[in-house]
Design goal:
The chain has 248 residues and is α+β, with helices and mostly antiparallel strands. It has helices spanning 35-41, 47-50, 68-75, 80-90, 97-118, 130-140, 154-164, 182-195, 218-230; strands at residues 15-22, 25-32, 51-59, 64-65, 92-94, 119-120, 170-171, 173-181, 198-204, 207-214, 235-243. A hairpin with a 2-residue loop joins strand 9 (198-204) and strand 10 (207-214). Helix 6 (130-140) crosses helix 7 (154-164).
Amino acid sequence: MPIQQPSNQIKLTNVSIVRLKKGGKRFEIACYKNKVQEWRNGVETSLDDVLQISNVFMNVSKGEVAKSNDLQKAFGTSTVDDVVKEILKKGEVQVAEKEREHDLATLRKEIATIVAEKCVDPATQRPYPVGMIEKAMAEAGVSVKAGKNAKSQVAETLRLIQGHSTLPIQRARMRVRVVLPAVEGERLQEQLRALAETVEKEDKGESWETVMLIEPSQIRTINELLQKECKGKGRVETLTFAATADNN
């Protein structure tokens, strides 16, 4: 038996347990913290560096090792490395309650920080403090998802704040400069103006140039318009990703 120590010496605070239910049974492996995600991302490739204990368990905390015939029935193989790889790929990482709460609080703060960086008060066009975003998230009933990174949860968080909180908020506008040959500018100016929330400046000479505030998703539409209509003769530059009242 690989474990030469009493099971109560396997400190769950020092390991990440990955659990997979298969064939009606529960299988677990004991991994170093953070190594599971590194393995799944392809950063870590050595099982020896991922596993704290090189075995498959029915219950890690009790030191209960899975039997070979149970592995064979559930996974079609009793080779430990093959079973470990499947558990690493498909299993669910178990997190202690206090650690889970800490991780969720950290993730929540990270989401709120990104929202604060990307959004503004529509009336003043100024950003909100992170603390106000967190309060709005609570008011809107935002539920942070532990299995997803902060960036991927920003759009849904903003939608919930806008629909279910009292905080007025909108995505900050991008400030962009569009430069075209004069002839192309005259031809496309109305289409470009329609994509802008505000046209701040427009110059006409040998080239046609405009500085506009746009909703961030419109940058792709502008690029596609220039590529289709100008055949490489026009360009769009991002001057400010999150334009606020101070940037005028």
